[in-house]
Amino acid sequence: MGISPHLARLRSMIGHELILLPSVSVIVVDEQARLLLVRHAGQRDGWAVPGGAVDVGESPAQAAVREIREETGLHINRLRLLDTLGGPDYEVTYPNGDRVAYVTAVYQAGIAGGAPVPDHEEISELDWFAPAQLPGVDLNPFTRALLRTTGYLST
User: Fold this and answer.
1) Each residue of 19-43: pLDDT tens digit?
2) Separation between Cα atoms, residue 102 and residue 52, nearest integer Å
3) Which of 73, 67, 22 is nearest to 48 (CA)?
4) Which residue from 23, 54, 92, 149 lies 20 to 30 Å from 81 (Cα-Cα)?
5) Cα-based distances in Å from 101 to 23, 94, 137
6) Cβ atoms 7, 100 nearer than 8 A
7) Do 34 and 129 contact (CB within 8 A), yes or no?
8) In whole angstroms, what is the distance from residue 97 CA to residue 64 CA?
9) Using one digit for the tens of pLDDT, what is the confidence trace for 39-68?
10) Alpha carbon of residue 9 to chain centroid
């Protein structure tokens, strides 16, 4: 699901104007300590930590579990809140002109089951990266800031 009915209704009223939006970002770590990164469909801005908006009536933790399941097919466990981030590094302008200032609850999670497969609606590609690889990976600005703040990226 690309946009919730609630957000679609807001966008119909405010157009592309900047909106403050609660979201989640999930650092999924496998048994080999690699991080799951995704590429968003229709965007060429680099690799990203999976996640998305918190829906009305949903807790951030519930949103984290739902987003990972929807986007990657994985079931996650050991969900641990790492930080809550916002500010200029977490503002995004989408190809259609929509502007969003995210306040994102950042979680770390393990894998409880499932096989990682991109949903091909929101996510076009996914892959695993060892922490030592991250400095050389083409990360989008949001993800680069997030991984630096949470200590996964030192440069």
Assistant:
1) 999 999 999 999 999 999 999 988 7
2) 10
3) 67
4) 92
5) 10, 11, 24
6) no
7) yes
8) 25
9) 998 877 899 999 999 999 999 999 999 999
10) 22
